[in-house]
Specification:
The chain has 24 helices and nine strands. The protein is α/β, with parallel strands linked by helices. The strands form two sheets. It has a five-stranded mixed beta sheet with strand order 1-3-2-4-5, with helices on both faces. It starts with 6 loop residues before the first helix and ends in a 15-residue tail after the last helix.
């Protein structure tokens, strides 16, 4: 794609990077076939190629974002299926990130939109606040049906997604060390996260049990914060970078204190962002090197387990539909490890049709774009249920919440099934089922 940025514009490193990304696009349109919003809406401007045109025009002309640009950028899930498809290597992730920062700086959203985004940014990254909000949601749920107008439907979506009950805080989320059993095989830190330990603490509990059982010391560091992903995708750059810096400091301290073989992440959405810390902080001289080291150590739990020899197991004879989260398959390019681990653990694994398409969760997308999200969710559920599987496995809490809200098939994190297969207790969600 030909660009016409001025030398003065290209002096800005963010614009210079976006210009290089734009120049790689050759208008081929391969991305349209795998873009969930284009497949759903059929609008060229709701495809990656269409958004690239809008971003180019906005940035090249130094214009503030307008309603049209914001509408179509907001509809992007950041699922990154387009990057998997693109034959030219267009770095769409960093381009859309830059566009969102530009929107945040130059566009004033309608009041209710600003309010919703402000609430999400002030609540979701903080486990204590999030837990309190979910408690209040039980009071508001009976009134969700009254919230039908455009201004209130996002709040209705929040209430619909809120679980009926919230598990108590887990002791595994507290800072501390978990000693390995038997011969020590490694030392890792684990990301506690923000929404996940509130919604489903069993995920990290299973991770820590499994790792310590096979000889890996697990550290839950003091001072860890949200990874920054949620606000990063809202264009709130400084808030996202502050979270990144805080976590880089925490994990650097652990590296220096006792060494780390990996930083284990059990939410693939967080993993995609943490693996990008080196890029996010590349212009910060005080943090660039440290952030790059952190990104290099970050591993999804299945990525880490794939490099270990796991003990013998008993075949379960259970069929699992594996849902590959977008942040796992497109963001981190982890496609085979989770399925190989499940098969090696004795499960029969089935791939749902259209596995490349997003389920519609995408962080806060199912709140901010509830109609498109609902259409994608229905499509995903149809494909998953067609597998006739006993269980659904995935690697991201957002997908678990989205998919689990629409099906009776139990959905668990991949590591919960692996913990069970390799000597752990039957997962709570499966205890009342005949397959357990």
């Amino acid at each position: 794609m030909q660009t016409n940025f001025t030398l003065a514009q290209l002096a800005d490193p963010h614009l210079a990077e976006s210009e290089q990304i734009l120049r790689k696009c050759v208008h081929c349109g391969f991305c349209t076939a795998t873009c969930p919003t284009y497949v759903t809406l059929g609008n060229e401007l709701d495809s990656p190629r269409g958004r690239i045109y809008l971003i180019k025009d906005m940035l090249e002309n130094g214009r503030a974002a307008d309603v049209e640009v914001v509408t179509h950028i907001d509809r992007c899930l950041s699922c990154l299926a387009c990057t998997t498809t693109c034959p030219s290597g267009v770095d769409y992730m960093h381009l859309i990130d830059h566009a969102r920062v530009h929107i945040e700086k130059t566009y004033k959203r309608p009041f209710m939109n600003r309010l919703t985004r402000a609430i999400l940014a002030a609540v979701l990254p903080y486990p204590g606040r999030f837990r309190a909000a979910l408690t209040l949601a039980r009071i508001g749920r009976p009134f969700a049906g009254l919230m039908r107008g455009p201004a209130l439907k996002r709040f209705a979506a929040m209430l619909a997604l809120a679980p009926r009950s919230v598990p108590p805080p887990s002791p595994f989320a507290r800072p501390g060390r978990h000693e390995p059993q038997g011969e020590r095989r490694g030392r890792v830190a684990i990301l506690t996260g923000c929404a996940q330990p509130v919604l489903d603490p069993a995920i990290n509990e299973a991770t820590i049990r499994l790792l310590t059982r096979i000889g890996v010391e697990v550290v839950v560091p003091e001072g860890e914060t949200c990874c920054g992903s949620l606000v990063h995708h809202m264009g709130r750059e400084e808030q996202a970078l502050a979270s990144a810096r805080a976590n880089v400091d925490v994990w650097t301290r652990e590296m220096e204190a006792g060494g780390l073989d990996a930083i284990i992440i059990t939410a693939s959405g967080c993993g995609t962002t943490i693996k990008d810390y080196g890029h996010m902080l590349r212009l910060d001289l005080a943090y660039a090197g440290k952030a790059a080291r952190v990104s290099a150590l970050a591993k999804d739990i299945t990525e880490y387990l794939a490099g270990l020899d796991l003990p013998a197991h008993m075949p379960k004879g259970i069929t699992v539909a594996y849902h590959s989260a977008c942040s796992m398959q497109h963001g981190q390019k982890i496609t085979t490890a989770p399925k190989h681990l499940l098969k090696a653990a004795g499960f029969t694994v089935r791939d749902p049709a259209e596995g490349h398409l997003c389920c519609g969760s995408a962080g806060t997308y199912n709140i901010m774009q509830p109609d498109i999200s609902a259409a994608l969710k229905a499509r995903k559920l149809k494909n998953i249920e067609a597998t006739k599987a006993d269980i659904i496995a995935t690697g991201n809490i957002g997908c678990m919440t989205q998919i689990g809200s629409g099906t009776a098939i139990p959905i668990l994190h991949t590591v919960e099934l692996l913990d069970w297969a390799y000597g752990g207790a039957v997962p709570e969600k499966l205890r009342d089922l005949p397959l357990a």
